[in-house]
From TrEMBL:
It comes from Angiostrongylus cantonensis. Belongs to the aldehyde dehydrogenase family. Residues 23-358 form the Aldehyde dehydrogenase domain. InterPro entries: Ald_DH/histidinol_DH, Ald_DH_C, Ald_DH_N, Aldehyde_DH_dom, Aldehyde_DH_NAD(P). This is Aldedh domain-containing protein.
Length: 370
């Protein structure tokens, strides 16, 4: 886990590094940036506070946390617990909505880390620019999945189903859509049906393991996409229920111009887009914004290498989804529209510290020039 990895390695990461030199003593000294602002999202309101908080504290910074007001009960709990165990001079929590966040962003911080959507990310960057404050932005995006004909279908479907419908699709790294050939599509749909039944049973709405949409606004947003989509529904595990915030797992066959293919879905609808081959899949992915992650399922090493070499994304996982975030020694972050900067483990420590160049010279140098 991230906290154990940080605690085990922080002494090594923070060691002063001496660089070999013939006459002088050059060194690199790590120092904390100062005060870090962490603005966290609602979909994993504890995990996505702790993930950047641990390296920020390990690096020696003081921290201000702004939890999402969309998950108010968790935000209140975070404020209560941190106030119990930390003094406000070291770590403090500021709760509230957009107006409170706007006021908070007027203050000068030494680093801002924001997890959320691109429009708000632009607001964060604009505010940070007033103080020349560096930012780390994790902004999500449409994470594609390529399913090649040579894949192991039952495991492929099981892993996609887990990643897509965990937390009702409200995961920044969740598979957003699948690129698959016409011949492989029916096998994938059937295997996904079986995996959904395995995870949630035949009465999905009654399953204790199936989540709900965060609020009615997001329920309406996803429902509007479903109502305006021109795709063919291949599987639907029940009827929508706005009062219960329930949207069932849905698999839908779409064209490129479908409403579901425009923005990140952030919900339990999985569009399938038919492609001829890997070339077309790569071209399609590269025609859009760079996603936070991209996934491919194949037994071909050459296809996997082509995929991660010829596409650009924050990360790539081969033959699974999301799991790269569980590896403490890998960086987590986006590229392009999916974000900037990185954190987790040593990469988080690097983000929240400054490498200060130090040079020590003796008083004998000039005599050598005579």
């Amino acid at each position: 886990m991230s906290h154990k990895h940080n605690c085990t390695n922080v002494d090594t990461w923070s060691v002063q590094k001496t660089i070999a030199s013939a006459l002088d003593q050059p060194m690199i000294v790590r120092e904390p940036l100062g005060v870090v602002l962490i603005i966290s999202p609602w979909n994993y309101p504890i995990f996505l506070v702790m993930l950047p908080l641990i390296p920020a504290i390990a690096a020696g910074n003081t921290v201000v946390i702004k939890p999402s007001e969309i998950a108010p009960h968790t935000a209140a709990t975070i404020e209560k617990l941190f106030a119990k165990y930390f003094t406000p001079e070291f770590l403090t929590v500021v709760n509230g909505g957009p107006s409170e966040t706007t006021e908070l962003l007027k203050e000068r911080f030494d680093h801002i880390l924001y997890t959320g959507c691109p429009p708000i990310g632009k607001i964060i960057m604009t505010a940070a620019a007033e103080h020349l404050t560096p930012v780390t932005l994790e902004l999500g995006g449409k994470c594609p999945v390529v399913v090649e004909d040579d894949t192991v279908m039952d495991l492929t479907a099981r892993r996609i189903a887990w990643g897509k419908w965990a937390n009702c699709g409200q995961t920044c790294l969740a598979p957003d859509y699948v690129l698959v050939s016409e011949s492989t599509k029916p096998k994938l749909v059937e295997a996904l049906r079986q995996s959904i039944a395995e995870f949630y049973g035949n009465d999905i709405k009654s399953s204790k393991d199936y989540s709900r949409i965060i609020n009615k606004r997001h329920h309406d947003r996803i429902s509007s996409l479903l109502d305006s989509s021109r795709g063919t529904i291949l599987f639907q595990g029940g009827d929508r229920d706005r009062d219960d915030l329930f949207i069932p797992p849905i698999i839908i066959d779409v064209k490129r111009d479908d409403p579901f293919m425009k923005d990140e879905i952030f919900g339990p609808v999985l569009p399938l887009l038919t492609i001829r081959d890997l070339n077309e899949a790569i071209d399609y992915i590269n025609s859009g914004e760079k996603p936070l992650a991209a996934y491919i399922f194949t037994q071909s090493e050459s296809k996997a290498q082509r995929f991660y070499n010829e596409t650009s994304s924050g990360a790539v996982t081969i033959n699974d989804v999301i799991m790269h975030i569980t590896v403490d020694t890998l960086p987590f972050g986006g590229v392009g529209a999916s974000g900037m900067g990185r954190y987790r483990g040593k990469f988080g420590f690097d983000t929240f510290t400054h490498e200060k160049a130090v040079l020590k010279r003796g008083f004998f140098g000039e005599t050598l020039l005579k």
